[in-house]
Amino acid sequence: MVYAVVRAGGRQEKVEVGTVVVLDRIAADKNGNVELAPVLFVDGDKITHDAKALEKIKVVAEVLNDERGPKIVIQKFKNKTGYKVRQGHRQELTRIKITSIN
């Protein structure tokens, strides 16, 4: 069993080859691929977490599509003052599929 924990978008995700992950928006290269930085690499019983050893490991993913997350409504209200503010937000997301872990 080979998998890696990668740093992406301020979070860490456990990925294997073929895993589809939704991350914060990231830009792809001209071929539509993205390289992610591994934090931990597991190959059977061998666990790698040393920074120098992880520099040699590449986690490559292809960008499937860019999306937007669900609408979040932010409301602020203060009683008896007439103060109310309403604001919306939709997060920019990217759906990727892990193609190789070398």
Secondary-structure topology with pairs:
Elements: E1 2-8, E2 11-15, E3 20-24, E4 33-43, E5 46-48, H1 51-54, E6 59-68, E7 72-78, E8 83-89, E9 92-101
Antiparallel strand pairs: 1-2, 1-4, 3-9, 4-5, 4-6, 6-9, 7-8
Structure explained in plain terms:
Belongs to the bacterial ribosomal protein bL21 family. The chain has 102 residues and is mainly β. 4% of the residues lie in helices and 64% in strands. It has 1 helix and 9 strands. The radius of gyration is 19 Å and the shape is elongated. 14% of the residues are buried.
List keywords for this structure.
single chain, 102 residues, mainly beta, seven-stranded antiparallel sheet, two-stranded antiparallel sheet, 1 helix, 9 strands, 64% strand, elongated, structural constituent of ribosome
Strand content: over 45%
Q: Largest sheet, described in full?
A: 7 strands, antiparallel
Task: Kindly provide the radius of gyration, computed on alpha-carbon positions and rounded to a whole number of angstroms.
Answer: 19 Å
What order do the helices and strands follow? EEEEEHEEEE
Distance from N terminus to C terminus (CA atoms, Å) equals 14 Å
Number of strands: 9
Shape by Cα distribution: elongated
Query: Which runs of at least 5 residues are low in confidence (pLDDT < 50)?
Result: none
Report the helical percentage: under 10%
Mean pLDDT: 96
Question: How large is the count of helical segments?
Answer: 1
Structural class: mainly beta
Subunit structure: Part of the 50S ribosomal subunit. Contacts protein L20.
Protein name: Large ribosomal subunit protein bL21
InterPro entries: bL21-like, bL21-like_sf, Ribosomal_bL21, Ribosomal_bL21_CS
GO cellular component, one term: ribosome
